[in-house]
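[recover] target loaded
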């Protein structure tokens, strides 16, 4: 049963199309308060921030 579910998830992920590339000026790794402030400050300066946060939840 587990292998069938894994196969279905794998096939579903292969059929998704990739979104168009997005231009960003700054990439911020981390969704803690410092990352949020950095993204906010960058946006105030006219930059386009991209936040990446890793969570095991």
């Amino acid at each position: 049963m587990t292998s069938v579910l894994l196969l279905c998830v794998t096939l579903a992920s292969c059929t998704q199309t990739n979104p168009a590339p997005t231009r960003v000026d700054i990439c911020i790794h981390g969704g803690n308060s410092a990352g949020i402030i950095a993204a906010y400050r960058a946006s105030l300066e006219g930059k386009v921030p991209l936040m990446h946060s890793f969570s095991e939840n």
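[recover] notes: Residues 2-14 form the longest helix (13 residues).
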